[in-house]
Design goal:
With about 160 residues, the protein is an alpha+beta fold. Helices cover about 30% and strands about 35% of the residues. A seven-stranded antiparallel beta sheet has the order 2-1-5-6-7-4-3, with helices on both faces. The longest helix has 15 residues.
Amino acid sequence: MGSNERSKVQMTDDEVAEFLVRSRTATMATLNGDGTPHLVAMWFAVLDGVVWFETKARSQKAVNLRRDGRLTMMVEDGATYDTLRGVTLEGTATISEDPDELWRVGVDIWERYNGPYTEELAPLVEFMLHKRVAVRLDVERTRSWDHRKLGLDPIPLGGTTAEFL
């Protein structure tokens, strides 16, 4: 898709922000020591417009980010070409062991995936965050696409995988 075609499907900054806030799972890519990508599905937080993750302090992704802070994440949606949309964020990750930052990330993730946080849930969030660190993504490049902007006629869901959707 050339730059002219890409501009037709590119999301605005507000559309990107709304898409991320409403999405559930990201694919996170870090770099292993040998340069190969390490891809994992991740739940994430959005705090004041900034994407955060939480992960075990000794996880492979944390090891990778301590060595090389480059991180790419992608969130996508859509089951047919006419409904495909997504966002890719490229940038530098900062690992934080600050308990207040980790707590904010943990509570946001709890609410995004489980429901409203109350003080009675504090032990569960504490358990979830045990031996973990927070990871902030400082975005340097954003790419987005929303094929719904193309105005295509609806494409029926088909193919060998359709029955599983």
